[in-house]
Design goal:
alpha+beta; about 15% strand; 10 helices
């Protein structure tokens, strides 16, 4: 068995490489995001501190998807460095198999996956919610009445006045406050009765309170109101859960799935997100196995460049297949459980088979 000292040494080298790559990518993304956000802000009166705080809050959400690549490149770099320094040759001469010195990196990758799912994901969701609030304040400041983007969040509700569909460009306070709001109100027969555009909407008991609203009614025309009320049967928790939002943390996803199912929304997206987070430790383990299968070649045998390129290509292929499976799961073509777990399972098995072929003949 591999000794504790050697195991900690291999594990520490692997974690150092992964953290270094991840932090470097985080700073690069934050820099690009800062430049892009500064361009979007333009001449608005936004101080640098607020802008930096917005970038800081947005960073965890954008960088969460980097972890598999950081693990892949960190593992490749670690194994190649150990091989170049002949440390792996010495370990093999001491009777330690490839499976044993891969073990510390594999254990570290699984641990990173668990922490990413249970700690980093909830933190990124909370920070993204704070970033949404700051962004809504920035882009609703000194702008026209309907400045929000056409893309955003959608809510379907049923009330005493009939069915209504609400579209919002931005949300705050967990979905209780919306900005850039458009409401389509239908009668019980499904005919459109009102189209309402408002600067903002706030959820109160049994109603949405719209401010600076313009109401278009067929046969009547456009009317303007400083305050307009739209009835609703949704509670604040239901609104937060029904928004097809990426800011739902891992711990809140089971409740979000249940709430989305109860109020008539498809829960496939939440179910897929939940299963993908559960599968993340296995996905990171698959990255380590793929990296090991292409990085344990002794330097003097040559062909290192082609081997590394093959490992990077395999890692990207695994990531692309993961995203493709997620798209199929969101579209309802594939069950969310299969879409989330299949790429990770296939990647891990592929890495194990290649290692078995190369190491055990």
């Amino acid at each position: 068995m591999i000794g504790r000292t050697l195991g900690f040494y291999f594990g520490r080298r692997f974690l150092g490489s992964v953290v270094g790559i991840f932090v470097g990518c985080v700073f690069l993304i934050m820099l690009v995001d800062f430049l892009e956000m500064a361009r979007r802000v333009g001449e608005r009166d936004v101080d640098t501190t607020t802008l930096l705080l917005l970038i800081l809050y947005r960073a965890p959400f954008f960088t969460e998807q980097l972890l598999p690549f950081a693990v892949l490149f960190g593992a490749i770099g670690t194994f190649l460095t150990l091989s170049r320094r002949l440390e792996l040759v010495v370990a093999r001469a001491a009777g330690i198999s490839a499976w044993q010195f891969i073990g510390p990196a594999a254990l570290a990758a699984v641990t990173l996956g668990v922490l990413s799912t249970t700690v980093y994901n909830p933190m990124s969701a909370e920070f993204k919610e704070q970033a949404n609030q700051i962004e809504a304040q920035i882009f609703n400041r000194q702008t026209g009445l309907f400045s929000a983007s056409n893309s955003g969040f959608w809510i379907r509700q049923q009330s005493v006045d009939g069915q209504a569909i609400i579209q919002a460009g931005a949300k705050a306070d967990g979905g209780r406050e919306l900005s850039g709001v458009t409401v389509f109100v239908f009668d019980p027969k499904g005919l459109l009765t009102e189209r309402i555009e408002a600067r903002s909407a706030k959820l109160e008991s049994g109603a949405w309170i719209l401010s600076e609203a313009r109401v278009l009614t067929p046969g009547i025309g456009v009317q303007t109101y400083d305050r307009y009320v739209v009835a609703t049967n949704l509670t604040p928790n239901q609104v937060q859960d029904s928004l097809q939002s990426e800011t739902v943390s891992f711990w809140d996803l089971p409740a979000a799935i249940d709430a989305a199912t109860r109020i008539g929304f498809g829960a496939d997206r939440y179910e897929l997100q939940y299963q993908s987070l559960l599968a993340r430790p296995l996905l990171l383990l698959a990255m380590v196995l793929i990296a090991a299968s292409v990085s344990l070649r002794v330097f003097r045998f040559g062909g290192i460049g082609q081997t590394i390129l093959g490992g990077v290509a395999a890692g990207f292929l695994l990531y692309v297949s993961t995203k493709l499976a997620e798209d199929l799961g969101e579209a309802g073509i594939v069950y969310p459980v299969i879409a989330a777990w299949f790429p990770a399972v296939v990647g891990a098995l592929m890495g194990v088979l290649i290692l078995l072929h190369r190491e055990d003949g």
